[in-house]
Design goal:
The structure is a single chain. The chain is of the alpha+beta class and 149 residues long. The protein is built from four helices and five strands. The longest helix has 20 residues.
Length: 149
Amino acid sequence: MTQSATSAAQGCIFCAIVAGQGEASVVHEDETVVVFMDLNPVTPGHLLVVPRKHAVGLEDLDRATSAHVWSVGHDMARALRRSTMRCEGINVFLCDGEAAFQTVFHFHLHVIPRYVGDGWTLKAEPPERERSLLDSDAQAIKDAIASTD
């Protein structure tokens, strides 16, 4: 865990919930994650999948925990669809960093049931990017992948 992740764990509300010291409406828990209702839900049924071990973001999360978080998120989406909440869609949403709207700096995956007319939108109208710029971006990412193997 990075120094920032270690210092952030002190006073972290999600760490308190995971430790059973914070109040939460828990839906599922296992040795790796705890799933509970979001206190400020986008829609009724909005869930958070939170690793037990503190990690600020993706950089601090090990591969096994990451894979498990996404797997449990998938299970929760299926459960929401099969529940009496009768959602019509699901958003699986990750905010990694302040610029990406992360507000609690303990990694968490949002699983959000959606309903026609629920009022929550993502209103982005990104411009089309030129192929040469896309190719340049792709190369920068390929270079980064090669350096992390």
